[in-house]
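Run folding on both entries below.
>entry_1
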Amino acid sequence: MKIIVGVKRVLDYNVKARVKADKSGIELANVKMSMNPFDEIAVEEALRIKEAGNADEVIAVSIGSSQSQETIRTALAMGADRGILIETDELLEPLAIAKLFKHLVEKEEPGLVVLGKQAIDDDANQTGQMLSALTGMSQATFASKVEFDGDHLKVTREVDAGLESIKVAMPAIVTADLRLNEPRYAKLPNIMKAKKKPLEVIAVADTGVDVSSGLSVVEVNEPPKREAGVIVKSVAELVDKLRNEAKVI
């Protein structure tokens, strides 16, 4: 069985995002980029499934600029077998991403697709669900535990009310939540080996997929700065401020 795992190049979570001067988006020039944290968890889960003998090959897939090859190489250094980059400099919406993954699913015929539940740059949380709708594959989102049960998967999902356990038929799409696992660090020998692993680059135009979007970003602004708090000396003063200044009581 093949596993396709998605990896996205995003602004590193330790870097404070800055809005461009023209408010057209986030400034990405000369800043640290890294693999989306939820995608790291997805890669780790795919590798554990393979190491347990439930898969033969893990394919790391990224959709983006040529620099996304670095992100794929990181996945290869973690243990993925080969990589595929669908190269484009356009900013694609989740539906376009899902369509491109569908193209690869039809080409590679994986038994399992593992994605991060969302990317930390747009927090869309849409690609896995859209891919399921496009392909007809079963979906198990927000997974915090994945177990094999014959030709089915038993997945524990994190939901608002707590934990939900479901069973889905394979082939399936799983989106990884934060508590699914702890991703491994790539060791130096594996980083060197990753440079020799196959990485296929496909131009987005060569896929034949329509990635046009009806959405456009009008303006991006930083969130308003939070006002400083006020220290009060007594409960009576607090109640007075809540009643007369904040007008919440």
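>entry_2
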Amino acid sequence: MSFTIDFGWLEAVMLASVRMVAFLVIAPPFSSNAFPIRIKAVLSVGLALAVAPIVSTSYVSPDLGGFVLELILEVVVGLLLGFLVMVVFSAIQSAGNLVDLFGGFQLAQAFDPQMMINGAQFTRLFQMTALVLLFASNGYQFIIGGLTRSFTAIPIGGGIDFAAPMKVLTDAVGGMLLSSLQIAGPLIVVLFLADAGLGLLTRVAPALNAFALGFPIKILITLTLASTVFLAMPHIVEAVTGDSIEALVGVR
């Protein structure tokens, strides 16, 4: 009884699993420390087996040196794709950071080792809410689907033109900044008007010392109006997920 091993197929699956595990290490929601590294490794192998019919058809087995170079290239590609998704999802975290900054919560920032983010209350709350909605709406499945379609855009061992991902990354950073302002913009405007009103009140009646009430008033306004952002959070997560998939399949 003999067994034949297709080393070309095995090498293609190994390279695909390397790209996927590099992606899962850095891309949300899988980058959270709530996912042990062993779970990420097993998930990457399972996904690599799922895309084996796609990656093995056009793969040509190189020599040992060429295989090592392709291995390094797949790590770079996986990290690059994961970074693109992380940049897009950072819009929600950046919006929370803006709310903390203008609402007076910035002094209470701390590092969250579970989520691997550094921020105050609304920064972490926005990020946790986005991840919960991502799993509740099965949006993570679309991200995995975009990752599997990346093997069609960037075949195993086919190389990559770094001009295309750099353009996508530049657009993603600009879109992230714009999205964060759109998410937190209305609340920031209200807080700015509150500061302007307190300034005018201080000029009219200096004895009142209106700025002494500034912090509790701004905190009250922030806690009251932040609920409007949470009402729009499902639509925000849906839009961010769509942008992440476009970034994944847009790299050539």
